[in-house]
Amino acid sequence: MRDFRHVLKQAGLDGYLTADPLEQRYLSGIELSAGEAVFLIMPTKAWCVTKQLIASKMVPAAKFLKTIIVPFGGMLDGALTEIKKRGLKTVAFDPALVDLATGQKLLDSGLSRAEGLIGEMRLKKYDDEVARIKKACKIAAQAFDEVFPQIKTGMTEDDVRILMAVAMLRRGADSIPFNIVCFGENTADAHHTASKTRKLKAEEPVLMDFGCFYEGYCSDMTRSWWHGKKEPAEYKKIWNIVDKARTAGVKALRPGATAGEIDRAARSVIEAAGYGKEFFHTTGHAIGLVVHDRPILRSGAPDGLEENFVVTVEPGIYFDGRWGIRLEDSFLLTKDGSKKLTHK
Questions:
Q1: pLDDT tens-digit profile of 222-243?
Q2: One domain, residues 211 and 96
Q3: Same domain for 116 and 164
Q4: Helices vs. strands in the chain: H and E counts, helices first
Q5: Which of 122, 154, 173 is the last residue of a domain?
Q6: How many folded domains does the chain comprise?
Q7: Contacts with 139 (C-beta within 8 Å, 6 or more apart), sequence order
Q8: pLDDT at 109
Q9: Residue ending a domain, choose from 122, 157, 177
Q10: Average pLDDT over the chain, rounded to an integer
Q11: Which of 313, 312, 309 is nearest to 334 (CA)?
Q12: Is there a single domain that holds both residue 134 and residue 66?
């Protein structure tokens, strides 16, 4: 909150209004749902305009965020009244985070547009944010180590999905935002939904992409392997190519590099092996309060990486109707390179 107030001063703004739960979580540390509150932040003070039902949730932030209780449905009007009462002249909102009608109402009320003020701040993680992401990654990695030896021929994809969810929740995860389990031909479907009927056969590939939220921050990792003792030479060959691409992408991770350079480092390995068309998604993305955050590690992306960014590297090769391989880990950018977070 203190740093954002400094941002407001630098931008020459009297205040900033937000009803976005993600921004509210970032500023206050409190998880809110859409429609539960409107924040009005000034360079020296801050208010949460909310209804009586939600007031108790705001107690942990009482030292820096004063609660104003209004009738149900009156939160936006309550915030606008506060702006008028205090004579604030230059108050902004992010137009990308409100619907058209709300945006027009705010403009008609004299507010101005300011995109990405908080979004830019969220790219570089504070130490407490890094600690939460590390914990989320540790939970996911340990859960996989527990579940992996339990995966047997005859289990359904959904059976394994449930095992992973329980293992992560038991270790302290708050929620499971995604939990992809694929057998056989389904491993070629990059974001497959686990089937309740597709059973694991002897001698076929498996792909699992999973993560969890811990105190608001997420993890993300993917593992691919051959289930059985007769791994085909072709599968082993492709797995090694993807692994080499992942290693190349990780080696390129450093402050000052661009998102596009990381993508090029990993993608060039796969293209050189002749499988460029089979790698049809980006190389990675940032994680934090959301699973897929900026910057996106995509071809030509100019976004510069900085110390304390947290990103994934996840190259893959997929053969439609047959099988696919993706390998993914999450990394914290350090002063000299990066540190892998998805380990036990």
A1: 999 999 999 999 999 999 999 9
A2: no
A3: no
A4: 10, 17
A5: 122
A6: 2
A7: 168, 171, 172, 173, 212, 214, 219
A8: 97
A9: 122
A10: 96
A11: 309
A12: no
Query: What digits encode the pLDDT tens for the residues 247-300?
Result: 999 999 999 999 999 999 999 999 999 999 999 999 999 999 999 999 999 999
The CATH number covering residue 13 comes to 3.40.350.10
| CATH code of the domain covering residue 302 | 3.90.230.10
Whole-angstrom distance, CA of residue 24 vs CA of residue 43? 16
- Pick from 119, 20, 2: nearest CA to 61: 2
Give the whole-angstrom CA distance, residue 119 versus residue 133: 18
**d(Cα 257, Cα 241) in Å, to the nearest integer?**
23
The whole-number average pLDDT for the span 88-109 is 96
Angstrom distance (rounded) from CA 185 to CA 210: 19
Residue 47's beta-bridge partner residues? 40, 66
Residues 107 and 169 in one domain: no
Residue 70's pLDDT is what? 93
What confidence score (pLDDT) does residue 73 get? Answer: 77
Per DSSP, what are the bridge partners of residue 300? none
Contact between 333 and 310 (Cβ < 8 Å): yes
Rounded to 5 degrees, φ, ψ at 299 are -60, 125
Residues 165 and 63 placed together within one structural domain of the fold = no
Q: Is the pLDDT of residue 344 over 80?
A: no
Helix pair 75-85, 100-108: axis angle to 10 deg: 20
> Is residue 148 located within the same domain as residue 283?
yes
pLDDT at 72 over 80: no
Give the pLDDT score at 29: 93
Do 51 and 150 have their domain in common? no
| Enclosing domain of residue 141 | 127-340
Residue-by-residue DSSP string for 129-198:
HHHHHHHHHHHHHHHHHHHGGG--TT-BHHHHHHHHHHHHHHTT-SEEEEEEEEEGGGGGSTTPPPPSS-
> Which tokens hold the place of 101?
């009608």
Domain shared by 247 and 305, yes or no: yes
pLDDT value at 1 more than 90 = no
What is the distance between the alpha carbons of residues 105 and 155, in angstroms, rounded to a whole number?
A: 54
